[in-house]
Amino acid sequence: MVDPVISATAVDLTFRTNDGPVHALKDVNLNIAKGDFVSFIGPSGCGKTTFLRCIAGLETPTGGTLTVNDMSPEEARRARAYGYVFQAAGLYPWRTIGGNVKLPLEIMGFSKADQAERVKRVLDLVDLAGFENKFPWQLSGGMQQRASIARALAFDADILLMDEPFGALDEIVRDHLNEQLLALWARTGKTIGFVTHSIPEAVYLSTRIVVMSPRPGRITDVIESTLPRERPLEIRDSPEFIAIAHRVREGLRAGHGDE
């Protein structure tokens, strides 16, 4: 792989608690190339969100090295090298959708004209054009999450980190947003790191699937997807899709067996 945009070498993370050390990550090695869509999947508490937070500079590894765009995660965070989408939309109820999306732009000192142009562009990207003057409570859960994605895209970082953004949504809405996320990725060419508990979601979205073991989180398998970039939902019934899903499931079972 030439010049990975995210590179982890022997990353460990141990939290110190009153009950003793908690080993969250152990010897994590991974390179992510520009334009990759990489999903992290594993049992609850396996460290997949912790690793995403390490990439974002929100947690600090206690061992190994981790770089983002050849910078430390802290430097990358200060340089606004990534957008981050949390499990909950986290929209401020007293601000309109447009106001929520432009909040990071206000903090970063973009001009009002630039803010308006960027808000319009990213709301178009997530199919929320015309909703900029609505308040969060006037939108469905799926629309709120799309607004959260728009906010993360507003300052046009090349990397998008997403922590189970669709986990709380019903299956029909989730399928629709999966389709929209793939379309958005195809249009923008972003590098995406995506945490999920769903095997079908991981297989449907990703160019690579990273399977993690129970705590301490280790990478037990990295699966290169052979699916085409254009993926209608019906592809989930194909033998190729089912074979990849089977390998993910076997990797999760094997990881449990190592405990």
UniProtKB/TrEMBL annotation:
Coiled-coil zones:
none
Question: What keywords sit in the KW lines?
Answer: ATP-binding, Nucleotide-binding, Transport
Which residue range or ranges hold the ABC transporter domain?
Answer: 8-239
Q: Which SUPFAM superfamilies match?
A: P-loop containing nucleoside triphosphate hydrolases
What the entry lists under InterPro entries is as follows: AAA+_ATPase, ABC_transporter-like_ATP-bd, ABC_transporter-like_CS, ABC_transporter_ATP-bind, P-loop_NTPase
Q: Which GO terms describe its molecular function?
A: ATP binding; ATP hydrolysis activity
Pfam hit, one: ABC_tran
**Which SMART domains does this one have?**
AAA
- What is the similarity comment for this entry? Belongs to the ABC transporter superfamily.
Q: What is this protein called?
A: NitT/TauT family transport system ATP-binding protein
Q: Give the taxonomic lineage as stored in the record.
A: Bacteria, Pseudomonadati, Pseudomonadota, Alphaproteobacteria, Rhodobacterales
